[in-house]
Amino acid sequence: MSLSDTLTEDLKTAMKAHDKVALNVIRMIKASLTNERVKLGHDLTDDDELTVLSRELKQRKESREEFAAANRQDLVDGLDAEIALVEKYAPKQLSEDEVKQIVTDTVAEVGASSMGDFGKVMGAVMPKLKGRADGAIVNKTVKALLSK
Q: What angle separates helix 118-129 from helix 135-146, to the nearest 10 degrees?
């Protein structure tokens, strides 16, 4: 079942259950997917859908951090529920150890030895981890390995 079909089915379920949070999140994801399809001018590939889901998840996580810093627990709680729903549709995230292993392998593949090779490593590793790892974690891991 495609992501679009899954979202449509879950939207129906949320409507029947009167789940306003789920309704809002699913509608936002569907709108983002539609906007991306219009922007690209063709049907979305799995990678395109993954990009949209990653963007939605990242926006919510950044907002959550800002609300937490401002001591707005009411908004943080709402975003926690939204993040959980978006994560339901995104692929399972890799652990930091799994990310470190992939980054280590990639550093060896490209022959990187210093921070000057940072861009080369990031360019090679991000397609491997697309949607399965937070870019900030990948960035931190690459910097740690190259600064040794």
A: 140
pLDDT digits (tens, 9 = 90+) for 72-120: 999 999 999 999 999 898 888 888 888 888 888 888 888 877 788 888 8
Residues 33, 71, single domain; the answer is yes
**Residue 124, both tokens:** 């090679």
Percent of the chain, pLDDT > 90?
A: 45
Q: Are residues 110 and 72 in the same domain?
A: no
Give the number of residues written for the chain.
148
User: Domain of 105?
Assistant: 96-146
d(Cα 102, Cα 30) in Å, to the nearest integer? 32
Q: Are 55 and 39 in contact (CB under 8 A)?
A: no
Could you give phi then psi for residue 135, rounded to 5 degrees?
Answer: -60, -35
Enclosing H/E stretch for 28? helix 20-40
User: Do residues 12 and 82 both lie within one domain?
Assistant: yes
* Number of domains composing the chain: 2
